[in-house]
Amino acid sequence: MSRLRVYKMRADAIIPRYETSGAAGLDLAACLDTMLTIEPGATARIPTGLRVALPSGHEGQVRPRSGLAARHGVTVLNAPGTIDEDYRGELQVLLINHGPESFTVTHGERIAQLVVTPVVQVDVETVEDEADLGRTDRADRGFGSTGR
Questions:
Q1: If we measure between CA atoms, which residue out of 144, 7, 31, 37 comes closest to residue 97?
Q2: Contact at 8 Å (CB) between 105 and 45?
Q3: CA torsion angle 36 12 91 87 (round to 10)
Q4: Do 55 and 6 contact (CB within 8 A), yes or no?
Q5: Distance (Å, rounded) from C-alpha 65 to C-alpha 24?
Q6: pLDDT digits over 87-137, tens only?
Q7: How far apart are CA 134 and CA 20, in angstroms?
Q8: Domains of the chain
């Protein structure tokens, strides 16, 4: 099993954990001195009070929590946010309030989830002829071309 090393920048920061044995994401919690309110249509960068070292060859994907989205219209703005394996700064979550009411974030509240997944880096090759990309049945049909 791969290992995620976590450093608490503050004693009251909450270590991410899986809420169930089958969960794909580790819950990330807000680490705040005071409550923070996000007005409808507004964004906020929420600190977690954590720095991490991802396993070699992996990335962290910061994803929304479905409950916040369903109940309050609050989600991760750049979902999924990417944490590169060599990043050592504080994990922060960029939330947006799409809901009709103000949303208040409190210390310790679970605000997002972190999915750790393998990454494959590729060699980039420039081709001189479009035909060198190879032909497919789909070709250039996109944006809903395969149906609803």
A1: 37
A2: no
A3: 160
A4: no
A5: 12
A6: 999 999 999 999 999 999 999 999 999 999 999 999 999 999 999 989 888
A7: 43
A8: 5-119 (2.70.40.10)
